[in-house]
Amino acid sequence: MTSALTCLQFALIDIKSAEDKVWFRGYGPDRYVYYARKGPKKFLGGTFQTENYQDLQRAAKLPGASSILELSDSPGGGSIVSLTDPEGFPVNVMYGQTPAEVGKPPEKLILNFEAEKPCLRTFQRFEPGPAAVHKQ
């Protein structure tokens, strides 16, 4: 897990770590955008946010779905239901996570186009480092 975390820390912010779990976030309103836990190497599934609790309850009634679980140890809390898609991949549905305070976004770049040259006689200087991560 240590080698995987070294790679992830390049552009993500470590917001919570436990002995065998870690959560990373970007600069957006999501409490975390990547979750890893120690164990056999496998994909833990994509997670989608519902707009209301009723959608989460509906997901829990689907064949093979887990019951609604409280995310008490995860940053932002909330509730989650786990499913398996027709190809056998895990899919999670989440609701009720408290949004994080949005961090500083990267500076917007001004670009030149064929007929429009707003950058004429100006330079854009970049700060060395990892790209900012944002999940929409």
From TrEMBL:
Highest taxon of source: Eukaryota
The protein, known as: Glyoxalase domain-containing protein 4
Q: Report the source organism.
A: Cryomyces minteri
